[in-house]
Specification:
The chain is mostly helical. It has helices spanning 2-13, 20-28, 32-54, 57-74, 84-103, 127-141, 145-156, 161-168, 172-193. Helix 3 runs antiparallel to helix 4 (57-74) and helix 8 (161-168) crosses helix 9 (172-193). The longest helix is centred in the first third of the chain and has 23 residues, at 32-54. The chain is globular, with a radius of gyration of 18 Å. The N and C termini lie far apart (60 Å).
């Protein structure tokens, strides 16, 4: 039975995006293997985004865990007109936003560390990348919550304006305005650090 369960999880993990609706429906029906397949596929993305938004690796881990608890609890509410990745991205953004608002997330500089794109990558990180990540964290922490969210999604994650607006529940104009203000602040801070 162990072999069969492992084989099923591998099969679910390899499903293409057209089968994601089946995967989320199975999760809504209480299928833990389907949830595991979703986690296997999207956990690196969630962890990267949460850690970047919160500028804290451990807080990113905590949010990632909460994201998949929400996926499990709310799978029946998934709207198939959107991609599963968009829904999970949205959950991640909302949980990070709540965390940032609640705690005014300011960390001492001694806790700042580098987060590679792949959290499980144990390879040696080049000094230049570590410095850039540390600098991003310092600058990002000075931004108001909405600006940090918009800046991270647009400039770091590469989301377009419409996707960012949808993920954050903003209008496109609000995204553009917040991004403009964030860029001004970031430019000023970077000039100070240079």
């Amino acid at each position: 039975h162990y072999y069969d369960a492992k084989k099923n999880v591998a099969w679910l993990s390899q499903m293409n995006s057209s089968n994601e609706i089946e995967l989320i429906h199975a999760t809504a029906q209480g299928d833990q293997k389907a949830l595991q397949a979703i986690m296997d596929r999207y956990r690196p993305m969630v962890l990267r985004l949460a850690s970047r938004l919160l500028c804290d690796n451990q807080a990113g881990e905590d949010i990632a865990q909460e994201v998949f608890i929400r996926v499990w609890q709310k799978a029946q509410r998934f709207n198939p007109q959107y991609a599963l990745s968009t829904w999970i991205y949205s959950i991640t953004c909302h949980l990070c936003y709540d965390q940032l608002r609640r705690h005014r997330w300011l960390l001492p500089l001694s806790r700042l560390g580098f987060l590679p794109d792949d959290i499980s990558d144990n390879s040696v990180i080049p000094l230049e990348q570590r410095e850039m990540w540390s600098l991003y964290k310092k600058v990002s922490q000075s931004l108001p919550v909405k600006q940090r969210m918009v800046f991270t999604l647009r400039e770091i994650e590469g989301c377009d304006t419409q996707e960012t607006a949808r993920l954050l529940g903003m209008t496109a104009d609000q995204v553009k305005s917040n991004l403009s203000q964030a860029k001004k602040t970031v430019r000023a801070k970077l000039e100070k650090y240079e």
